[in-house]
Amino acid sequence: MIAQFSPHSWVSFHWNFTTSFKNGCVVILVIIMYLVTEINHFYLAYVLWFPYSHIIMLTRLQIMIFWGAVSTREIYDYMIGEASTIGQQFWVFSGSLVLECFIIGKFGKDLFQLSWPPHIVYGWLIGILLLGIWAIWNFQITISTVEPGSKEEERAVKRGEIDPKASIPRVEIIKSKCDSDTDSSVANSSLKHVRKRK
Known about the structure:
The protein has seven helices and no strands. By secondary structure, it is an all-alpha fold.
């Protein structure tokens, strides 16, 4: 009897932060946006001289909670490939965060003119550097080249590493068919001749 009051189905979310670079960036973006949302609550209360328990601040917090849930679902659907574009609620939520940051920046200039303690700056720099090194190590970010028309190119297209529709200029290396030393000397002299003509 109690089961009829429960949800029809449960949706499980698998963010898979460490499986791909895109997933890692999306998770970091969501974390940053939630942290900015929370810290803006305190900055706005300070800048606009509202007490933290004011009805406007509490209403803003409740709106952001529900709006953030919808925005998180939209960015999740984009990340896993269910949606081809990021939903409009996410963009409006991002725009409201940026607007709040502009308000804080305009009316709270005195907050940002103070210098940060060196240990805080070094801590953030070390954290960002370690995150970058970990991302390069974990996601194996490398630059590689493949020869057009080769088996390696076909495998890279199947894995999604290369877009076959991309219009990237390709450089083809023309191999000489010289087998003997005399033929190679002739080829070298023709190359010198070509260079002189240019």
